[in-house]
């Protein structure tokens, strides 16, 4: 970043002599002499740290003989100073190049910080979050920290049990773009078919990136397709990897759920173990480094089938899947000279999952008593390999800065079955199968140029670039016994999840080229104008041109207003275009064979369902930021998002349908559904974030109130071909309810973080608003609002070791209970709101050297 925003005078005054157990006090100021609130002050090589209060001051009792303090705040260069007890005035040295740092998402200006962005941006310091909460993976961390973000663990949802779908501002998982270090992250190969969130969507699997490798997460809560391309309708999540050197961090975490509903006398279940280590090596004097992270997480099953419910059981096994996750991630930079460097980052993630499918009871005609005299509970397994690699060079070309990179990503998902059978083989049936799967790959070549004109009014930043992307998708069949029917009088295929058939197999690819230009003009010191324009062309459906206009105006030193207006688009994923499968669904507890026909299949063509095309959107955001006194800050942002031609998974058509019934009978399936651009949706919402820092006794209390209010309506359902005029049959009330329930109408987070000496305490309340779903008979299921409580206590055992113990969902709150025969997944609730496992107890120890 340019030095004009990164030179911060820092005054440090020691109240005691230099040495171990000294108390250092000081004040952190910005370039204008104003206090920097919430700046992080850490004693180097330890877990000992604090943050500045409302007047920019801090007090830190040191734990090493010759302490050095590392002071950082987003938008300013990190400063390291000696805690030598002398009154010192320090200015941050001007950077020799502006290519040192990853830019804040939402702006290509190296001069732009989050505090003066025209769009709302949340910055989540992962070090702070992971040290004080029980959640371990990225999705769950964000679920309880960012109100506009929602993700639930699914169960009974096939692939979604293994890849948690997530949404931003109540839209689909595939309507949020994910970047890593500012580069597009590839999506998962999975299409979500069941569960309460993300039905018919393909999203990005955030959990392939270990939290231990992340420095911070930036969430741009604004449409940004004109800046970053497809998918950025709801916003952008940018994951910034660690770049620290000469610092070893490691942690071990263990937790269990309180299984109060189990009837087998087992007190706890769902044990969750995580261990990780991160270390960075500095190379030379020009900022070169290699930072590496190893992470392992093992999560065991929870069992919630025996939860008391109004009308018995639908399944004997119901709960979280068992998952083991191992990751290796790297981030690096190699300086070529004072003005150029090469960068490379990426990682490998290997995941194995083990999820419950629906029970086949002893008298089920899909059971073979000779193999399972008491019936059986099929297990759906997954073998997922995710890999990514990015390499590029950044250099100065005169007054311009050039960034050229290549980005490759791959996600391979393979299903398996165990504890199952193929009923048509009788007692000779195997009890485990390989069921096939799918793979999605992408390669992106990009070039970008930026330049800052300091003499044009108060500064003009111009950026332009181009991008070429190729994507590949393939679906591969399982072994023959996983899908074949050997006896037409019996059910064929592996029970729990029938394998993909050779007729399902497909290999597909497409190309995309894009070009963009954007500019940010500081008309005055108080007034910023910004605009962006982007053109994209896809080989499979055509072109898209999108724009964005933004402004920000500082009314006073304490009040800033901002607004944006943009258009956007999302290209249908290759998986949505090409996915084809015949699977077993359970409706009111009865098995039904369902055909999900690919978009260009003979069935869809016969019905006149057109080829998928891009979704388009119009977004607006208006808000303000305010510093109410020296210790209180407030941001309020209202938004409007209109999505046209949204790709959805239609309702299911039965074999008795007057139009499609005969075709389904010929295919030997009971029901069929399709992907189609079938809906227009409209979202109105409000984001509010209130922060306060206060001195309480000898400690510091940081309080945060953050809330998202969101209302999504389906304006129109579009039908076509032979199904024209049948809106309620094509995309009916039940499917619409699942789309509307992608996020609660409101989600409110109140967090209180207190730190005093070696002790720390965090108390958090999260209120999830009510959710309404429909059962198979279109009767309402109203999930009442719920409040969860998290409590964590921490203690610094030594300057380098910190212990934390606590509970997530301290009072064991679960969603409203229903008859399992009515729910989507066969349990006493659907995976809504905060999840259904109850109280989680945990302990973690963290080391920093």
UniProtKB/TrEMBL annotation:
All residue ranges annotated as the TonB-dependent receptor-like beta-barrel domain in the record: 349-810
Span of the signal peptide: 1-19
Highest taxon above the source species: Bacteria
Record's keyword annotation contains Iron-sulfur: no
Pfam families assigned: CarbopepD_reg_2, Plug, TonB_dep_Rec_b-barrel
Membrane topology: Multi-pass membrane protein
Domain TonB-dependent receptor plug: 114-236
Keyword line: Cell outer membrane, Membrane, Receptor, Signal, TonB box, Transmembrane, Transmembrane beta strand, Transport
Subcellular location(s) of the protein: Cell outer membrane
GO CC terms, sorted: cell outer membrane
Chain coiled-coil ranges: none
PROSITE patterns assigned: TONB_DEPENDENT_REC_3
Regions that span the bilayer: none
Family to which the UniProt record says this protein belongs: Belongs to the TonB-dependent receptor family.
Protein's name in the database: TonB-dependent receptor
Organism: Hymenobacter glacialis
